[in-house]
Amino acid sequence: MNNVFVYCEIEGTAVAEVSQELLTKGRKLANQLNVQLHAVVAGSGIKGKVESQILPYGVDKLFVFDAEGLFPYTSAPHTSMLVNLFKEEKPQICLMGATVIGRDLGPRVSSSLTSGLTADCTQLEIGDYEDKKDGKVYKNLLYQIRPAFGGNIIATIVNPDHRPQMATVREGVMKREILDENYKGEIVYPDVAKYVPTTDYIVKVIDRHVEKAKHNLKGAAIVVSGGYGVGSKEGFDMLFKLAKELHAEVGASRAAVDAGFVDHDRQVGQTGVTVHPKVYIACGISGQIQHIAGMQDSGIIISINSDPDAPINKIADYVIVGTVEDVVPKLIKYYKQNNK
To answer: Are strands 165-169 and 117-121 parallel, antiparallel or unpaired?
Structure first.
């Protein structure tokens, strides 16, 4: 009772990275609260294939729901499964990935349990909250932290009275770290029929197509990112040339994507991809809070900007004051000469 739960997504028998990231964070939250970390995973033919991908992250109890009809994901069976499980287990916190599945499943579960849900969190912390109106002090609540009002402020959201406290987090926001390869947690294989009525399987997936990402922006060691200041598609061609020399990936701010300079799947930030490269080169990016939320944990941040007072310069380790058109060709020339 009152433990921390993580819903783990799978593709076939492979556990999603975002779920493992949340298990890492969930373990830390559970330690702070002095409770256990529990996880739940559902699919078809997954028994004996997913446990080793989940338990090493410090999971004390794993619920494996294995039955025909639980994969590919459909809304009704997974909703019934979690709602009925949570009615039994009464967790105080539930974390999900802010994925297509998490954004569908999370609201359904929270609505059924009359609980709250905060989407797209960038931080999760434990803290106290004082309701000054009622004079109550709530201990050890989940601080659900995310940008709000178009990224102009950082909002901290709490859910004092209803349980579980639910939050979704996008892939790449949290760090994924195995706690112990041999971590011994309890594994439970529930009777799925007790949790999911047969009527929930009425929707069948006839055909399904999964397309791999065209690039590995999230896993790149170096990211060269462009903003509206790059000025055009041709300007981004220059960034691609620099990225080629550095064996890097190209990212972009929302403003650059909205202007049509580059494809949406390269967007870095609150509404795009979160990255943690060793080096992040920001070219012509002003540094609005929603962009910074997606790259602030980079190892070294280099800003190339004609405005010395650009917000991104405040978090940059190195600032080059100048236009992208002047600076980037010089970088390309330098690396070409020195990579021979």
So the answer is: parallel
Burial annotation 288-302 (CB, 10 A radius, 16+ → b, else e): bbbbbbbbbebeebb
Report the predicted TM-score, pTM, of the whole model to 2 decimal places: 0.80
Q: Do residues 75 and 199 lie in contact, with contact meaning Cβ atoms separated by under 8 Å?
A: no
- 10-residue mean pLDDT profile of the chain (340 residues): values are 92 92 95 95 93 94 93 93 95 94 94 92 89 86 82 82 92 87 92 92 83 79 93 91 92 92 89 88 90 88 93 93 92 82
What amino acid occupies position 194?
K
Q: Which residues pair with 169 in a beta bridge?
A: 97, 121
110/125 Cα distance (integer angstroms)? 20
CA distances from 339 to 66, 246, 247, 287 (A): 52, 9, 11, 31
Residue with tokens 């905060």: 118
